[in-house]
Specification:
338 residues, mainly alpha, DNA polymerase, domain 1, 2 domains
Length: 338
């Protein structure tokens, strides 16, 4: 029978109240390492609190697995004494408990980053995550919307924004939806945008992504027009109801929007959609229309091209189409043969 790890149970019911004090109590001596690593993530890498909490939860789970004996279930192990068999055993343990492959891959990525830090800080001599393969489904293409679905959503919010009595909220929602799709922005990037981040004269936006890394994101004419309407008419209306705000997108009370509000707005327009799906739709549709992966990587703000390579099969499909159309030995004969 597979042994139970409390972290898996926590994963099923949520971790709203999980904090560093709880982490220290759960993982004993490993708590000191976790506190130092969380400080490293927050201060040196500039990760946001929610990202740090997610990393903390994953590492707590691994620490508890080690304290239960690790891969062979014998004795008590720690982060510093863990071996490759313990990491692979943890992956197997997660599979036995029905954890989805993508979640397993994320936890492995978290553990890899932790041991990279331990190596750089000379806490360990070797990395136990070396040669541990991620689940193959890590590269499964994320779900996206069809172009017709996105077009319908934009037409819906656009009609509301163009109405003579359009409210500030209607102008805001259309501008946000256009920007989510045009620039492939993360929901966290949308809510932290400031008005001075807009560069509408050059059809671009300055975005602060993960780790506070900045990038310039080009946007199309439709997004520019929607943002201009919001800044000129919608935002001043919303701003009157609150204090002075630098944040671009405001609530009906004049306060900065929350990520939950953005999710709610997108779902109101299309129950099957989400801000994350719009981001993937942006990338998917660009690749389908011939964009190279490096360009998509830059647009989305992926630190590693490997993250963007989930779209590889789309690029290959596009390449095959171009090859069939352009290569003299690949064109189809009139009779239907190749």
């Amino acid at each position: 029978m597979a042994r139970e790890v409390r972290g898996l149970a926590l994963g099923r019911v949520g971790r709203k109240n999980l904090g560093m004090n709880h982490a220290t109590a759960k993982v004993g001596n490993s708590g000191t390492l976790l506190r130092e690593y969380m400080t490293h993530l927050r201060v040196e890498r500039g990760l946001r609190p929610l990202s740090c909490e997610a990393y903390l939860c994953d590492l707590e789970m691994f620490a508890e697995f080690l304290e239960g004996g690790g891969g062979d279930g014998v004795g008590v192990k720690t982060f510093l004494s863990a071996e490759q068999s313990d990491v692979s055993g943890f992956m197997q343990h997660l599979r036995e408990h029905g954890v989805q492959p993508r979640s397993i891959a994320r936890k492995l990525s978290c553990v890899r980053g932790f041991y990279k830090w331990l190596l750089m800080d000379k806490r360990v001599r070797r990395d136990p995550t070396v040669n541990i393969e991620s689940p193959s489904s890590w590269r499964v293409l994320p779900k996206s919307l069809a172009e017709s679905e996105v077009r319908e959503m934009l037409e819906k919010t656009g009609a509301a924004a163009r109405a003579e009595d359009a409210s500030g909220a209607a102008l805001r929602d259309h501008a946000m939806l256009e920007l989510l799709y045009a620039g492939g922005l993360r929901v966290g990037e949308i809510v932290t945008l400031r008005q001075e981040d807009l560069r509408l004269e050059t059809a671009s936006v300055q975005v602060r992504g993960k780790g506070d890394k900045e990038r310039i994101v080009p946007i199309g004419r439709s997004a520019v027009e929607a943002l201009e309407a919001y800044v000129q008419r919608g935002r001043p209306e919303l701003l009157k109801r609150g204090g002075v705000q630098r944040t671009l997108f405001l609530s009906v009370r004049g306060n900065p929007l929350t990520t939950q509000k953005v999710w709610q707005m997108v779902r109101t327009v299309n129950l099957q959609a989400s801000p994350h799906k719009l981001r993937h739709s942006c990338a998917t549709h660009m690749v389908e229309h011939g964009a190279d992966l490096r360009s998509v990587q830059t647009l989305l703000g992926h630190a590693d091209i490997a993250t963007t390579q989930v779209y590889t099969h789309l690029a290959i499909d596009r390449l095959k189409t171009v090859h069939r159309m352009c290569h003299p030995r690949a064109t189809r004969r009139a009779g239907g043969g190749a």
